[in-house]
């Protein structure tokens, strides 16, 4: 029974005809963004934060050091330490520089360009409102 309900839900959820749109009335007019698009943009923005934030970069470096410490061969452990300390920051920089949430969601056809523009404008408005509240 549960499997049947989940199957039907998946069929309706994945069909473009049944995409749920989120319409909000605010001071700036209508905003019409699908839940899928907003989820994709928010999730990718969070992932980009985890790649670019210095705290998380330190966590990744610490994790790489601990991973190298598990290697039984001392020679290979030193090589591992050398390569992770040299290349992991470069890899994270590379991922962070090409990881653009708007392009990813657009390339996977989760969002269209209009939704991305609306999402970006809404985030700017929210950021400006937050700054004004602090003042």
UniProtKB/TrEMBL annotation:
Key words of the record: Disulfide bond, Signal
The positions making up the signal sequence are: 1-17
**Keyword tRNA processing in annotation:** no
| Alphabetical list of Gene3D superfamilies matching this protein | Saposin-like
Q: Which organism is it from?
A: Schistosoma mattheei
Q: What is this protein called?
A: Saposin B-type domain-containing protein
Q: Does the keyword Transcription apply?
A: no
Q: Where is the Saposin B-type domain?
A: 33-115
């Amino acid at each position: 029974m549960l499997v049947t309900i989940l199957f039907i839900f998946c069929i309706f959820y994945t069909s473009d005809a049944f995409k749920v749109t989120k319409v909000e009335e605010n001071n700036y007019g209508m905003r019409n963004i699908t839940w899928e698009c907003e989820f994709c943009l928010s999730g990718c923005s969070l992932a980009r934060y985890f790649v670019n934030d210095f705290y998380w970069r330190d966590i990744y470096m610490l994790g790489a050091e601990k991973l190298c410490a598990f290697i039984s061969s001392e020679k290979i452990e030193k090589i591992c330490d050398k390569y992770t300390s040299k290349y992991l920051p470069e890899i994270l920089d590379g991922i962070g520089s090409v990881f653009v949430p708007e392009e990813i969601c657009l390339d996977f056809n989760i969002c269209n360009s209009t939704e991305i523009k609306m999402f970006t404008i809404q985030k700017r408005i929210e950021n400006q409102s937050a700054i004004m509240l602090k003042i």
